[in-house]
Hints:
It is a single chain. This protein starts with a strand and ends with a strand. Helix content is 37%, strand content 26%. It has 4 helices and 9 strands, in the order E-H-E-E-H-E-E-E-H-E-E-H-E. Helix 1 (15-31) packs across helix 2. The longest helix has 17 residues, at 15-31.
Amino acid sequence: xxxxxxxxxxxxxxxxxxxxxxxxxxxxxxxxxxxxxxxxxxxxxxxxxxxxxxxxxxxxxxxxxxxxxxxxxxxxxxxxxxxxxxxxxxxxxxxxxxxxxxxxxxxxxxxxxxxxxxxxxxxxxxxxxxxxxxxxxxxxxxxxxxxxxxxxxxxxxxxxxxxx
Length: 164
């Protein structure tokens, strides 16, 4: 076997699934009794920011819970959501922006690389922008690394692509 086997570790969120979850959450908010008469809204800009506006912090948290349940049903990991701080909006409302984290940040990539090196599995981890490439001679070693990363408690969801 002259060539090394490799795979890429990425952290991506399906924007289409997020859009569908936001639409479902919006429909549920419009029909739920506890949101009758409230000015609760949820919107997605298509690039990675979900804006939640509501009457008060309690209702805003309820809207966020509805959104989370819809995202989980659609297979989107809640680790990819980053809640912004509560800000006052016009008309006595409160607003919160939830951003989607796409890609692996540099410090998390270094943490993954360190984890792989400490495992003593004979593979190399290379940081490539917002993804990592893991390569090694033996495919069984690569499978061990995938299992190691799945078991690790990392702050972002990971996907494994381009397995060769």
